[in-house]
Batch of 3 targets.
Target 1
Amino acid sequence: MFDRISNISSNSNGGPPDEAATDNEPLAALLDDSESITYVVPGSGGIDHTTEVRSISFEPSGDQTAYMLVTDESVYFVLGDAPESAEVSFSYVDVTMAELKSGLLSTTVLVKTAAEAVRFKPADTDQAETAVNYISRLSSIWSDFVDALAEARETVDEIEHRLESGTETSRLVRSARSYISNARHAATHDDDAPSETMGEMIDPVESKLDRLCTAIDTSRIESLLEDAREAKAQDDHESAFSALAEAHTTIENGRKAVADGGVLETIDELGSTYDELVTMTFEDAEAACHDGQSASDPGEAVEAWRMARERYQAALSAEWDGEASVSAEALKFQLAWVTQRLIDSLLEHGDALEAAGDEQDSGVEQYEQAKSQLERARELAAHHAHATAPVTTERIEELDEKAELGAWQWGKSG
């Protein structure tokens, strides 16, 4: 623990002091909690301060020494080893120039803002040069950082206003993200940047943007769920599953991004609606499977299995994988099973239609329908590796011949 600035200076030799020095009593009233001392430069004279309206010199008295204290946020000019306040201080955001001016008799540190300037004579020129170079770098870093963060704050506030008025915000969201990215870059690009302090300043702005974006996403979720309902009502199952899959992703991303209780509650409510809609959609497919298994009429079984297959195929086409705990692998397995059931039903229906045709005078329509069922079964089997449809070309040709004969006989008798 150091109790005098002179001890910090002698310990650090003008460079970054030990970590313990940042906690010493002389600086407790001077520095913010987030600040870290980087350089301590003793002077060989006083502190000359010039403003637009006056010039004043702060001269050390007795055995006092003037110091330039350089932190990662500000530059302080103080008198004595235990100052309670600075004679002059500049935030890096305000610094427009820092340079070492060498003359015939002495060297002077010049630090300027738009409205003020300080001239300070260092005891050690090398120490002063190192500190001045640091001040120049930090003033540039802080300027870029503060400008970017101010733009981000302003844009986020505008997004909030537009949300309240129901105005489009997508362009502003992209701009806000870009400004925050610029601020992050300024905070991390240079090794001298106080990245932790700057990061703590960025976090609340980015968190607010995330909350607003999630509020935007809640509208998107509502729209997707309504799209899914409409598509489902129109038997457009692929569009329904696509909308539900996107809604799932948006809901999960929203839950991760939001800490705000009100917004999170809205997302959870929409999540419950989503869960109900997904359950209903898959229950429709399961119900179609039950109808196919229980159907006594082969034609009804074909229609039930066709509907079930259509729904599972739509889910896979929409790249459904994991939402509502239904994986793509499980869907593929279910689709293969349903497809084989559909093929079996098509074959059974084809046989039934042929038998019905045999019992009629003509039977042309039944034979044609039977042929169509068998061809569809063969087509499905050809596109599914594990499906089988024992239908020969000869069988298809026999139905063709029956249809032609029936048409000829019907035409002759007519």
Note: The CA atoms of residues 155 and 172 lie 7 Å apart.
Target 2
Amino acid sequence: MKAIYDSGTPVDFKGAMVLKACLINVGYTEEIRHTMDIDANWYSDTPPTAAQMEESLTDALRKNGINLNVHLYRMYGEGHSAGFELSDPDADEILFTMDMDVNRPAQSTQIYDIAGLRFRGISPMQMLADKISAISTEKGFRRIKDVVDLYYLSQVFELDQDALMSTLMNSERHLDNFNGFLYRDDDLRHAYEKFRFTGEAVKPSFDEVYGAVKQFVSALLPHDYTGDTRK
């Protein structure tokens, strides 16, 4: 990530790696969920070709002494990201993947600096906007990690509703009705129980995670919501 930032390649980062940096910067020191992937946004005046993206990423790594092969295995298109595999050329082994959205609506960013490693990533407010927007729809069942991440973020941030709504509008996102999150908590519980925490990260109980996130977003819930999660 630092190599790509230093190279001037038009890439901003997002996802769990940026979440980790964000939490470290505000003093949250506990282990969080791990990831094997890197998520990013590519911005350029014209749509980049597959060769341009592969060459840009490869050059950025090589100039910083990182000997990895970059292979685009999925071209970006309407509604889906580009997918890259980064592999060890000696062992012929894929080490991790990178998902990259290309020329999507701009997101607010900032520079992160962790022990001298600098990179540009989405801002904490953009992170909140993306994840709250996701759980307000039925996507919550496919992206239980957004609920988990909001649990972490709720430990260190207060929700500024005006700033959130502005960020949602600027990035062309919106809030849905939260019906799945509020009324299908058994399905959410099942998805959470299947979700694996690796490394040293502690997996809180579902009730702790769900309760904290629901309280965190309470100001955004429908006015007719009474707190009863059963229809």
Note: The two ends are 46 Å apart (CA to CA).
Target 3
Amino acid sequence: MFIPAHNAVVLYALESGSITESTNGTTAATLPTAPTTPTVLGYTNLPQTARGLNNSKGFAIGQQGAAYNKRGRVEPSITVEIRPGSLEALSHLQPNEDGILPHLALYVVVKDPDGGSYTDTYRFCKPTTLDWKLGGGGDKGGGEISISAAFWATAYKREAVLTVAPSDLRDLGTPLMWHDVRQFTIEDATGSPTSYRRSLMNLSVKVDYGLERKNERPHWGDSEPLSRTSYALLEHHQNISGEIGLHERLPEGLFSAAAQSQDWGDIVIVCSDAHGSVAATKGFTLTLAGAFPSDETQGGGESNAEIDHTIPFTADGISVAVV
């Protein structure tokens, strides 16, 4: 059967239960009941997914062909580009004050009029990397703000199709756009912020949570969703890097006015769909703490090109405050 990508939709929910571990290593561990009221993650492209079976063949002397099957650690994953409509999901893509990411359940619902509908369910997920993209685009202006999120899941199950009404997607409203970026400020080494919104062409930020899959549960059979899965997804160092594209060059004071000029403070980006007397229906403030420029470059080009500038940077931390 042939199914077009527009028949798919991605839902999410916070995991509310916990895994019941095996007490004897022989009886299988069990998943709690999946959250029953997932919501639409946002406007997305078709996600890239993998069961993560890691199966292979084993060889030995005495025969030329493979001698046995090797079952590997099961490592499900899902990568999806999100254009935020409702912004609630963004608050669940960052760790708490103890550095722990919340567990999410992700659902890829695929409808098939010929009867082949299904839901791919990814349980106890955490984001391993996030790629924020804010850009001014070409001559006709910018497009949607987007976040490419790569999730690691603990377990995978294919289940019956969930019901998703078209109104659930329409209710998201218009996603935030480039013209909804209201403020872009950089603090210098003294903590004094200056706005560079006029000059900003684009901003990209990559967050790597350094996830590690811890150990491997016993093999209880291919029919058990927790068979050979990892016990935990452990966060390590949080690495944040990014790149700023500018039409105009940053002041030299940010690089060489004093001995510690390059020890910048925070980069703050405020996005909101408020306009005039109309209050915001959605928005967020993205703060990159302790920004530190890695370099400053100038793009090459023909004589009819504009001189543009790029500043790659790293940061100590990232936080998202949703309106």
Note: The longest helix spans residues 166-170.
